[in-house]
Amino acid sequence: MRLNLKIWRQANQTASGRLVDYVAEAISPDMSFLEMLDVVNEGLIKKGEDAIAFDSDCREGICGACSLVVNGTAHGPDRGTTVCQLHMRRFKDGDTITVEPWRAKAFPVVKDLIVDRSAFDRIITAGGYISINAGGAPDGNAIPIAKSVVETAMDSAACIGCGACVAACKNASAHLFMSAKISHLALLPQGKVERRARVVAMINQADGEGFGSCSNEGECEAVCPKEIPISNIARMTREYFRAMLVRA
Amino acid sequence: MRVFSSSVWTKILIGLTGVALFTYLVIHIAGNLMVFFGPDVFNNYAYVMEVRNPLLPIIEILLLLIFLLHIYKTIRMYIDNQAARPVKYVKKKWAGTPSRKSIASSTMIVSGLWLLAFLIIHVKAFRFSPEYEWPAGGRDLYRQEMENLSNPFMAGFYVLSMVVVGSHLWHGFSSAFQSLGVDHPNVTPVLMAAGKVFAVAIAGGFMIIAVWVYFHSGGRVRV
Amino acid sequence: MTLDGKVPAGPIKEKWDRHKFEMKLVNPANKRKHTIIVAGTGLAGASAAASLGELGYNVLNFCIQDSPRRAHSIAAQGGINAAKNYQNDGDSVYRLFYDTVKGGDYRSREANVYRLAQLSVNIVDQCVAQGVPFAREYGGLLDNRSFGGAQVSRTFYARGQTGQQLLLGAYQSLMRQVNLGNVREFARRELLDVVVIDGRARGIVCRNLITGAIERYAGDAVIIATGGYGTVYYLSTNAVNSNVTAAWRAHKRGAFFANPCFTQIHPTCIPVTGEHQSKLTLMSESLRNDGRVWVPKKKGDTRSPEQIPDEERDYYLERKYPSFGNLVPRDVASRNAKQVCDEERGVGESGLAVYLDFRDAIQRLGVETIEEKYGNLFHMYKKITDEDAYKVPMRIYPAIHYTMGGLWVDYNLMSNLPGLHVLGEANFSDHGANRLGASALMQGLADGYFVIPYTIGDYLASATLPKVTTDHAAFKASADAVQQNIDRLLSIKGKRGIREIHRELGRIMWDYVGMSRNEQGLRTALTEIPKLRDEFWRNVSVPGTPDNLNQSLEYAGRVADYLEFAEVLTLDALHRRESCGGHFREESQTADGEALRDDEHFMYVAAWEFKGVGKEPTLHKEPLHFEEVHPTQRSYK
Ligand SMILES: Cc1cc2nc3c(=O)[nH]c(=O)nc-3n(C[C@H](O)[C@H](O)[C@H](O)COP(=O)(O)OP(=O)(O)OC[C@H]3O[C@@H](n4cnc5c(N)ncnc54)[C@H](O)[C@@H]3O)c2cc1C
Ligand code: HEM
Ligand code: HEM
Ligand code: SF4
Ligand code: F3S
Ligand code: FES
Which of A219, A229, A238 sits opposite B181 (nearest CB)? Predict the structure, then answer.
């Protein structure tokens, strides 16, 4: 296959960027999208030109590093799929593909297609944990937890922290990401102890980072590679309500 | 307002005011449907609701506050949300199901501002305009309505505005519940569907009133 | 030189408890004054950094990804072992210990393995308390599955995302310590040198991957938890940025590299489709419970699988191992797949794959049952290959998956270089010549949560550690060397792609130092690797500048280290003229082609000392003693 690529190139955080045209040749339909970019990069490197920078690591949809907006959709056209698991058979010979980075004030572009997502780490740092130290934990079976509760918690805990939800949301809101962690922890008995302080601290942090609010559009859910539903956002609101009304 | 400034409080407040405004619209359309029963019924209804109602000033002030809060919060949020994405995408597509994004949801600020303009014109025309006496007591609101809507431009503007109301509610109704944290596998689909039904019913209802009044107003004004 | 593993005295069951009591403690008020550098945020690094932060040390924590949460541990699927015996099926600490020593083919240190089995119990408790959503039964208690051929159900899991959930638990604890000010996090930093002052590891030199700045950090002890070196084979199930760089640079500063030839190959991965392939995806081993492995009997049979009648199929595992059949251990299944492909009976376009067929299972159990058991795996297979495994057999092939070798450490997880501690997959410690399924996660967390917090205290309390700053001459020398290496890479400006050379290295390693090794092949590799290394340094193209985010430069540095490291790995494989665990030497096999250990000559840990690039490293041996579990030959017939 031969493809026309329009790829966002930006030298660093302060430089202004633009879309640059490339042609990807001899692309096999079995390649993943990132392998297609590897091929383009290999060509650039051999010519001594600066390779296109993009994040990736596991290349199997779990680390959350890869982060490309492909033809206007975060992680590309396949549902429940990270861009590292998107395959070129999804495209036709001669297609034009536009590739952009996540765009949000809280995710400044570092270079080309790489953005700085440390804001997510700071949201977790603000309270996305259970405060226990190593040692002294009670037996794992000391507190039985209903299977259905654990399964729901696991649905939320599956978040890979990729940031596609922010990228897709018209408000660049981090509500889905945050609510996934808040739900995961608030559903489990171990996490209930700190639920009030946690939800307030995390939301304040996200607001301070410059993420937007949520207008309930659900684009985030549609692009989320782990298909995390926005019912988590509703749960976060309830958690927040509770935190405001009931003092710990 | 600082305590209520977090992104989640913002949602809660917009959701609450949205539900309140929706409720007002339901009551409002119910009242306005009386216009089909002629001037006696309609004016009597207005008389009972307005003159004989000691709570009216309070309700009006409350309504005004709700409007102001809704407008303040939504505009403020819109500005902040715009700031959250300073560099726009060159290419952006709808992500597909289960996204709830629609033309209506993407244009809430436009439909909202249109409604603001409509409200100013509308309230000026009905609430702060010269009043006609109605012999049985109160105002002759019926006549006023006929006059207001006899102008084809005005009628057209109303009809168009009702499309906008419908659009605002198309997303707004279910959105308000999600904003308030109401979510349940059985309830959410019902709310989603109800939002669309209400949007069409309320917009359609008002539209029929406006059109009906326009065509009836010819005779009335001349008398 | 004979290495001392510093195994404490006493009966095996009491060693750790006794040792814990005998070790020195750091006064709580003094902990704050000790800076500990932790490189790595995988299960080992994150758990260590968090626990040390909890104790009050001043911790500096580094990783190459943009967030500590993305360490490669996140990809582990199957589960984590713990000797809880919740299933009442006869498990115990001793049995887990026994299985691990045996599974490691008697090439691990008994005392370490026993401690690991003991601590496994605490790990699960710790993780549950952190909010790890392990699978549960309807009654609300923790569920277990049996994994990797174990005869008891002791594997705890969170769907197919166990590594992710455990890592997020550790990451969250780590972030809590960041919040409390005990840990400072440095993401997108690559450790490029370990600074040794007065014979002790006292700091590191890193490249800031965003600004390109060469940064220096000083401390009282250095912990390396930077994972395994599977990507020396280019294609592996590891994340693409996994590297040996941190371990290798420490090795160059004096830390011994132990048993590098012990690599694990996983039999059920999705096969290679072409040159372009950047990594291989693991398909869970559980598929072999119902799938039947076969290839055509005839060489070069290009018919599609459904056209090949049963009598022309060779279900070779069932034929050769009637009692274990398709469930033989990883190394046996892998070697046999290679063998049939070498006989030109492999399938698929490349001829490098075998069928894993569910036809009979579907007939017997129905599509629904198969879907319920393996639906997600079939789905993943479809996503990658565009083939429907309900209709056509899957094609699978072995791939490099885990590396048992690593920097040598003693019982306290300290390398021979004082102050340098090594945890997780980066050390060689507990798995011997072969790792059992679901025990890498266990080891990483045991090291980080429950071993290093004690042993590092002992080191800090016993050693005299005069204050050093990053102005010290040794820091300057290190930083200069790092800078020179970077400048050198950027100045080559050759014609070859970095990936191209890495791919070539991978091919050499896979062909000659892969699943099945022999003297001649290993010697070929030992001539090919230096040639390729020369070609790299003469003719590679590394574009871009040093003072900016430059992924080509990062990658080139890692490949450069692999080109040096590959030689030691090969040398180790050459010197070990026995077959054990994942290391199969064709010269050492039984009459019917099974691995044959040579306990008389090779019952030791081989630890290599660096003597210069291209120079033969010096071998040091740590003899292994088996007092509890007596070595026997494995058999799966
Ligand atoms: C696909 C797959 C599935 C697996 N499934 C299982 C399973 O089910 N059960 C099981 O027990 N094991 C499993 N394993 C093995 C297990 O996941 C790993 O052995 C284990 O997670 C390694 O953890 P670690 O902390 O040692 O290193 P990693 O998790 O590899 O972490 C390495 C860390 O070091 C950092 N780093 C690397 N290089 C540098 C450098 N130069 N400078 C600074 N920082 C650096 C990285 O940023 C990262 O934070 C699996 C492995 C794979 C590949
Ligand atoms: C009768 C008039 C109005 C009604 C019934 C109404 C109703 C609603 C409802 C139900 C919502 C959804 C709330 C939520 O999602 O939480 C909403 C949202 C909104 N309203 Fe109104 N509204 C009215 C007037 C206005 C006006 C005058 C404006 C002027 C600016 C406005 C602007 C908005 C905006 C921008 C939103 C979107 C909020 C978001 O993105 O989440 N509305 N409205
Ligand atoms: C065809 C459409 C409509 C008709 C015929 C209509 C009619 C009227 C009438 C007759 C009044 C006067 C009532 C009074 O002063 O007591 C009134 C007031 C008002 N209407 Fe409407 N209306 C319509 C649509 C709307 C819509 C869509 C909105 C809201 C977005 C709205 C908001 C109001 C408000 C806020 C007042 C003033 C209420 C008060 O001050 O008490 N109307 N309308
Ligand atoms: S919620 Fe989904 S889209 Fe958002 S960060 Fe998590 S996995 Fe990515
Ligand atoms: S797309 Fe954005 S508006 Fe809310 S529901 Fe998702 S965060
Ligand atoms: S590279 Fe890890 S999720 Fe895509």
Answer: A238
Using an 8 Å CB-CB cutoff, list chain B residues near A229: 98
B96 — contact with chain A (CB < 8 Å)?
Answer: yes
Q: Is B181 left (phi over 0), alpha (psi -120 to 50) or beta?
A: left
Protein residues with CB under 6 Å of any ligand 1 atom = C 39-45, 62-65, 71-73, 75-80, 162-163, 190-191, 225-228, 237-238, 242-243, 245-246, 282, 401-402, 424-426, 438-441, 444
Phi first, then psi, for residue C151 (nearest 5°) are -90, -5
Q: Which residues contact A139 (CB under 8 A, 6 or more apart)?
A: C125
Query: Taking a C-beta distance cutoff of 8 angstroms, is the pair A128, C172 a contact?
Result: yes
Average pLDDT for runs of 10 along chain B of length 223: 81 97 96 92 88 89 97 97 97 94 97 98 90 85 90 94 98 98 96 97 96 79 41
pTM of the full predicted structure? 0.96
Closest by CA to A39, choosing from A77, A93, A3, A80, is A3
Identify the closest residue of chain A to C539 by CA–CA distance: A46
Query: Closest Cα partner for C35 from C227, C179, C184, C215?
Result: C184
Ligand 5 close to Cβ of residue A169 (< 6 A): yes
Which residue's CA is minimally distant from atom 7 of ligand 4?
A: A159
The verdict on the CB of residue A104 being under 6 Å from ligand 4 is: no
Q: How many Cα atoms are found within 13 Å in the side-chain-facing hemisphere of C262?
A: 30
Q: Reduce the DSSP state of residue C434 to 3 states and report it.
A: coil
Burial C20-50 (b: 16+ CB within 10 A, else e): eeebeebeeeebeebbbbbbbbbbbbbbbbb
A151 touching B, CB under 8 A? no
What is chain A's percent helix, strand, coil content, to nearest 5? Answer: 40, 15, 45
- Asked if residues C540 and C488 have their Cβ atoms less than 8 Å apart, the reply is no
Calculate how far, in angstroms, residue A172's C-alpha sits from the geometric centre of ligand 6. 21
Q: Which helix (H) or strand (E) holds C258?
A: strand C257-258
Pair of tokens at residue C201: 């590891």
Q: What is the pLDDT of residues A51-73, one digit of tens each?
A: 999 999 999 999 999 999 999 99
Listed residue (C144, C133, C33, C19) closest to C78, CA to CA: C144
- How large is the angle between the packed helices C43-55 and C452-462, nearest 10 degrees? 60
Tokens 């660096």 map to which residue? C610
| pLDDT tens figures, C244-288 | 999 999 999 999 999 999 999 999 999 998 889 999 999 888 888
Answer whether A167 contacts ligand 5 (Cβ < 6 A).
no
Gap between the Cα atoms of B156 and C621, Å rounded:
94
DSSP C238-252: S-TT--SHHHHHHHH
What's the distance, CA C192 to chain centroid?
A: 20
Angle between helices A118-127 and A175-187 (to 10 degrees): 30
Facing residue for C175 by CB, picked from A48, A85, A124 = A124
Smallest CA-to-CA distance from C278 within A42, A68, A35 is with: A35
Q: pLDDT digits over A96-151, tens only? A: 999 999 999 999 999 999 999 999 999 999 999 999 999 989 999 999 999 999 99
What is the number of the ligand closest to the CA of A160? 4
Instruction: Give the position, in ligand 6's atom list, of the atom nearest the Cα of A55.
Output: 1
Instruction: Please state the φ and ψ torsions of residue C322, each to the nearest 5 degrees.
Output: -55, -35
Look at A135 and C450 and tell me if their CB atoms are within 8 Å: yes
C-beta atoms of C551 and A53 within 8 A: yes
CB of A103 less than 8 A from some CB of B: yes
Cα(B28) to ligand 3 centroid in Å equals 7
Closest-CA residue to C72 (of C47, C43, C48, C50): C43
